[in-house]
Specification:
Largest sheet: 2 strands, antiparallel
Oligomer: single chain
Number of strands: 2
Number of helices: 3
Structural class: mainly alpha
Number of domains: 1
Order of helices and strands: HEEHH
CATH architecture: Up-down Bundle
Shape: flat
Strand content: under 5%
CATH class: Mainly Alpha
Length: 111
């Protein structure tokens, strides 16, 4: 009976249920006739040539790493704070390291 409470089993059961309901709902989906005129770009009545745009995520990565570092730091500090056998120096050193990493992360080299 304990296997029902284990996270891997619960995840697999939830995944099976979602897939089952997905296939069940898919049968109610209306059939769509694809019309190329509907998907054309409209620019005030004239033909607009479509262009491929490749997005640039360079500016996103520092924020994603910042978010990850701060959340891992918060997790580590809360874990260390709840254990009474850890001295005060370890969370302090960890916090200083996180501040150092975050300050290095936002140094601009293109100036």
């Amino acid at each position: 009976m304990e296997i029902l409470l284990s996270p891997p089993f619960a995840f697999i059961m939830a995944l099976i249920i979602v897939i089952f309901f997905g296939y069940l709902i898919k049968s109610f989906e209306p059939k769509v006739n694809k019309n190329p005129e509907v998907s054309k770009t409209y620019a005030c009545g004239e033909d607009f040539p479509s262009q491929k745009i490749s997005p640039n995520y360079e500016e996103f990565y520092p924020y994603a790493i910042f978010f990850t570092i701060l959340h891992v730091a918060a997790l580590m500090l809360m874990t260390l704070a709840t254990t009474s056998s850890v001295s005060f120096a370890i969370p302090l050193i960890y916090t200083i390291m996180v501040i150092l990493i975050i300050s290095i992360l936002f140094i601009r080299t293109d100036l």
